# Entry
Amino acid sequence: MQWVSKDREIRKLNGILEKRKEEKTVRRLWRSCFQDPIKYEDFYFKNVYEDNTVYILKEKENTVIRQNCEKEKSENLLGMLHLNPYFCKVQGVEQRLHYIVGVATTKEVRRQGVMRNLLYKALDDMYKAGEAFTYLMPADERYYSSFGFVSVSFKDTWTISIGEEQLSYQYAEDIIYVRYQELEDYFGADTEVIFSNIDRWLAANYSGFATHNREYFDLLKQEKECENGEVIFCFEQAIGLENLLGFFAYGREEEKAFVEQNIILETAKWNVSGCEENLYVLAKRKKIQEIIRGYFVSGFMENNRAQERTRVPVQIEGSVTYPYMVRVVDVNKFLKLFADCFLEFAENEIRLYVEDCFMNQSDSGIYMFSREHDEVNVQKEEINKHGYDIKMTVSELAQFVFHEKGKKVFWAELV
# Structure
């Protein structure tokens, strides 16, 4: 439920002109809360901010009381929340979902319900837009769990070091590295096939992921460039569609490199899918590290010529998974997307009651399931005639789908 006091208001910034008018104070709050490098901040507000939906919570101008009356009226910004749109595939269905970023509150009004009100407004608007769920990467899970968000993946990192004595070693000699901006030179229109192959691999391994199309990679490239890094595609033995191994993206700070996204496909040469799960994870991680290490001690292709990298000692930090949280927005749509998780409910005629204690409307209520051939159908009961068998909160519903039923999602570090 939303409790905005009468001397405060939430504004939804949709148009570019509105966003540019508020950019100065939005940037000021962003800078005070996140301390991003100026290059990254500039990248965000130049390339991402305009496409986002931005919510700001302000004191109404006629109620602002300040010691320094010379301050601009626009400095009554108390909090903000940004919705970053991504085209995703969930259970094979294309979805336009929003990634919540930039949730911030001025220090003076923290613990006064500012974040609660912004979240409520954003979730309500996403529900009205027909979105099944939303997601975010929390600074602290405790901030969001009380609002119905559930952790669906956890941060899993690795570190490798390349010292002076290792720079002369040869790693992954059969791997060829191509920068993203060079792909077009090699593949022309077939570059789109590379993106499709990556999405096909993601679809085979994950129930939900952001679509890796040209727009996605263009933005990822710009993000990494402002972090002194690049997006690198890897090929085995020769540059060709059939030799694609995957890609990784990294940023760099002095002698440290941060690999913030990597998708390395499985090839016949090192496929370990028949191993036990723990051995498989270890083998795949080792191969990923070998491929990435090779880039930093060898070089990349440019204009059909091998370009040698400047060989300096470097510490490489990488993440396998990130700590994302999911929040069900529309119960009905969410259940239909993940209907295959409720086969047992259909076979045993189990009636499910889903409750949302935070939002007034999220299509919570009683749901029935039926089976038709290999599909599970979901139907909401408009009038409660027969009670229910199982009750879940929206948090428990997300936990059931992503934990008990093992539905995996892939959202790497995103802007």
